[in-house]
Structures are given as structure tokens and as C-alpha cells.
């Protein structure tokens, strides 16, 4: 039992399936009161009914007030899990880039804009961002996703270093491949890079609970991602060469 979760008011966005649904279920198992958010109202309602939670459908960054009311006036933990996995490169339409930026980064900004005043007043609050290992490293064939996930990680890190002394705890969850609809939609690049070591959403949820218990900022459901992150920082050219070889392999497989 993670004590901070007992009777905590928790919001999980993008929780109609995948990692979000696994998080919602796991938090409920720990005794939390959970608001299940998803653009798909039916999916949100199904998960909420299963765990005894409350469904709040709609845009992830625009439901803070409604979710707070559903939880009796206080959100203790906000899981910014909703995201879009966008492939392509510079040729991708501006509208697609803007959607990736809006969902993967600005939704986090808008949510914390609503959450921080109450959290700072009371001296506690917890923000959990599902970032992806693409935010630590990159993902071949997916420039909008990689760039915006780097932005999500940067924003989570900024929140942590700015507000930690005022009782705000922040976690960045950075899995590699997870067996979800997003992985299934990632095409040949996902099959090449992510599928071989993909894990179940429930394994991500367990890693998140352990990260909360340990009060770790960086939560790595795939521990090897930390080694790749260190290699990227300390021998960047070698790391780029290795990723370029994957890119070439992807091109030759097409």
C-alpha cells in the first residue's frame, strides 16, 4: 500500500484504455478516489464503473474544475496521461504539429495553471506526466511526437525544480514500448524499435506506484532507458550513429 494514495483524489486523463486505464485501476486498488477522463465518454464511463470512480469526459486540460468538484473540492494527484503519437517529419502539416504540441505539452501547462494555486496554498500536490522514452531519447519516424515529448519532459522538470520546496511533487513516466493502441498504430518504426521489448500497461502502472513510493522524478518502466539516456548525454555522436543505423534499417525494410 502506497500511503499517499489512500483516499487521495486522483485524476487520470486519457484513461479510457491503455496506460491510463491501468493507472486508474491501480490507484483505485490503493484506495484512491479516481476521476477517469477520456475524450471517449463511453470508454471513460466503462472504466469508471469498473473501479467505482467518476467519469469526466472531454479535453484533458479543460476538465480540472469539473474533476475537482467530483472529488469534493480537492485534487491531490493529477496524471497527465493523454497524448497523441504523431509520425512524420518536417513535411508533416502544421496542423498535425500543432495538435501534437497542444495535446502533449500545452495540455500539461493548462492543467497546472489550474492546479497550482490550490496546491501552493496548501503546500502539497502531485503531478504525474506520461512522457515516453521518446522524451528522453527520440523516436525514429516521428518528429512531432519526439519533439513534443521532449517538451513535456522539460516542462515536468521545470515544475519539479521550481516547486519542490513548496510541497509539489512531480514525476515523469518514460516507458519505451507498451502494448496499447498507440503502439499498434506506430507502424514499421514501432515494430522495429518498440515491439521487441514492449510491456503491458499494468507494468507501467506498477512502476508508477513504485516511483511515487520512492519519490523519484524519473520513472523508467524499462530500466535500460536510463542507460540509453546516459549514453546519449555522454557520447552523443555515438548514440546518434546507433540511431541512424536503425533509421537505415527502417528505410531498407520498406
Briefly characterize the structure.
GO terms for molecular function: oxidoreductase activity. The protein has 254 residues and is an alpha/beta fold.
Structural commentary:
The chain is built from ten helices and seven strands. α1 crosses α8 and α4 packs parallel to α5. The protein has 254 residues and is of the alpha/beta class. The chain has a seven-stranded parallel β-sheet with strand order 3-2-1-4-5-6-7, with helices on both faces. The protein has helices at residues 18-29, 41-51, 64-70, 94-122, 143-163, 181-184, 187-193, 201-214, 224-234, 236-253, and strands at 9-12, 33-38, 54-57, 77-80, 125-130, 168-173, 218-219. The protein is globular, with a radius of gyration of 18 Å.
Helical fraction: 40-55%
Shape: globular
The CA-CA distance between the termini, in Å, is: 48 Å
Strand percentage: 5-15%
List the helices and strands in order: EHEHEHEHEHEHHHEHH
Could you tell me the mean pLDDT? 93
Count of DSSP E strands?
Answer: 7
CATH-defined architecture: 3-Layer(aba) Sandwich
Structural class: alpha/beta
CATH homologous superfamily annotation:
NAD(P)-binding Rossmann-like Domain
* Main sheet summary: 7 strands, parallel
CATH C-level label: Alpha Beta
Regarding quaternary structure, how should these chains be classified?
A: single chain
**Tally of individual helices:** 10
InterPro entries: NAD(P)-bd_dom_sf, Sc_DH/Rdtase_CS, SDR_fam
Protein name: SDR family oxidoreductase
Family: Belongs to the short-chain dehydrogenases/reductases (SDR) family.
GO molecular function: oxidoreductase activity
Amino acid at each position: 500500500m502506497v500511503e499517499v494514495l489512500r483516499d487521495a483524489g486522483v485524476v487520470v486523463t486519457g484513461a479510457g484504455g491503455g496506460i491510463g486505464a491501468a493507472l486508474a485501476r491501480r490507484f483505485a486498488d490503493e484506495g484512491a478516489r479516481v476521476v477517469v477522463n477520456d475524450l471517449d465518454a463511453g470508454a471513460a464511463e466503462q472504466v469508471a464503473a469498473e473501479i467505482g470512480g467518476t467519469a469526466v469526459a472531454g479535453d484533458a486540460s479543460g476538465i480540472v474544475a469539473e474533476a475537482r468538484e467530483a472529488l469534493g473540492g480537492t485534487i491531490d494527484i493529477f496524471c497527465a496521461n493523454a497524448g497523441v503519437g504523431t509520425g512524420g517529419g518536417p513535411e508533416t502539416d502544421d496542423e498535425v504539429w500543432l495538435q501534437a504540441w497542444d495535446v502533449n505539452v500545452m495540455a500539461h501547462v493548462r492543467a497546472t495553471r489550474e492546479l497550482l494555486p490550490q496546491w501552493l496554498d496548501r503546500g502539497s500536490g502531485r503531478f504525474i506526466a506520461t512522457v515516453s522514452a521518446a522524451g528522453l531519447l527520440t523516436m525514429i519516424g516521428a518528429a512531432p511526437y519526439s519533439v513534443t515529448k521532449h517538451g513535456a519532459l522539460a516542462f515536468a522538470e521545470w515544475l519539479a525544480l521550481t516547486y519542490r520546496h513548496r510541497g509539489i511533487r512531480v514525476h515523469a513516466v518514460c516507458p519505451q514500448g507498451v502494448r496499447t493502441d498507440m503502439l499498434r498504430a506506430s507502424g514499421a518504426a514501432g515494430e522495429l524499435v518498440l515491439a521487441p521489448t514492449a510491456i503491458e500497461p499494468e507494468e507501467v502502472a506498477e512502476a508508477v506506484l513504485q516511483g511515487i513510493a520512492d519519490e523519484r522524478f524519473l520513472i523508467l518502466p524499462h530500466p535500460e532507458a536510463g542507460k540509453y539516456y546516459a549514453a546519449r548525454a555522454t557520447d552523443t555522436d555515438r548514440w546518434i550513429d546507433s540511431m541512424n543505423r536503425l533509421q537505415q534499417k527502417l528505410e531498407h525494410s520498406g
